[in-house]
Every structure is written in C-alpha cells, then in structure tokens.
Amino acid sequence: MTVRPGTRIGIDVGTVRVGVARTDPAGTMTLPVRTLRRAADGAELEVLARIAQEVHATEIIVGLPLSLSGQEGPAAVAARRYAEAIARAIPRVPVRLVDERLTTVSAHQALHGAGRESRRHRAVVDQVAATLILDQALAIERHTGLPPGELLTLEESR
C-alpha cells in the first residue's frame, strides 16, 4: 500500500529535550532535524511552529511511550499533554499520537552500532528517536493503508 503524500514532522518528547525529525514531501524518507531544549514557558513550541511552516507540514506525529503492557503511564501522560500543547501552538496541522515503545533504546543501539561514543549520544539521540517514530508511523500506514495511531482532538473547553 502507499503512504499519503505530505511532509510529516516526528516528535520525541523528553522531560529536558524534544527530538524533531521530518519526512520528505512524498512521505517515504525520514530525516533528523534538530534537538530542542524544553523551556518552562514552552518557547520551543514557537520553533516547532516555524519548522512546521518552513517544511509545509501536513501532519505532526508525536511518540506516545506506552508501557510494555500497552498502558499509559506517567511518561505517556506527559507526552499526551505536550502533544496537546503542540496542537494549540500549531492549530492548522493535525497531530497524531503513535506508540513509540523502546524507540530511545533503539536510537541508542543504532548510534552505538554506528560507532558513536555513548557520551556523544545525548546531542542526537532524540533526533534519531524522532526519525524512528516517523519510520514506524510510515510502516503502519504502508501496512494498513490507514493513518497511523490516534488523531489528537482538543476538547472545546481548553
């Protein structure tokens, strides 16, 4: 099956940093973009909005770190809240939540396998995790023919 055309942005949400990646306009290849430091006032959301505008994003995919049993723990709740903040900051672009279990572990393994020293992982691991989230979302869409994950909808009261 094919993937819907359009550039997607992938987000790996951490407590300190946010990894950002993107697809090409055909939605076939993923590329790391940058790592943003989270600010108490959410200033990094303005940078995300600029990135979305620059690449003409059609969708934002946020990793949802479910537990191994598939439940939403504290990290997933925090990622969901961050996804809501993204949706409010970039209202014209749909936000989807996609299961991202173990992507950071996989990102560290990929960097180690590429010969990168462990102490130097921090600078890029979040970007690599964001590309893995996008890769997974694209694979789901190719396999099912449906958009991946859960479409985030904000309640009217927010």
Describe the structure.
This protein has 158 residues and is an alpha/beta fold. The chain has a single domain (7-151), classed as 2-Layer Sandwich (Nucleotidyltransferase, domain 5), CATH 3.30.420. 39% of the residues lie in helices and 23% in strands. It contains four helices and six strands; from the N terminus they run E-E-E-H-E-H-E-H-H-E. The chain has helices at 44-54, 74-89, 103-113, 122-144; strands at residues 7-13, 17-23, 30-37, 57-64, 95-99, 150-151. Strands 3-2-1-4-5-6 form a six-stranded mixed β-sheet, sandwiched between helices. Strand 1 (7-13) and strand 2 (17-23) form a beta hairpin. The longest helix has 23 residues, at 122-144. The radius of gyration is 15 Å and the shape is globular. The mean pLDDT is 87.
Short description:
This protein is α/β, with parallel strands linked by helices. The chain is 39% helix and 23% strand. Strands 3-2-1-4-5-6 form a six-stranded mixed β-sheet, with helices on both faces.
Q: What layout of secondary structure does this protein have?
A:
Layout: E1 7-13, E2 17-23, E3 30-37, H1 44-54, E4 57-64, H2 74-89, E5 95-99, H3 103-113, H4 122-144, E6 150-151
Parallel strand pairs: 1-4, 4-5
Antiparallel strand pairs: 1-2, 2-3, 5-6
Spell out the key features of this protein:
158 residues; alpha/beta; Nucleotidyltransferase, domain 5; six-stranded mixed β-sheet; 39% helix
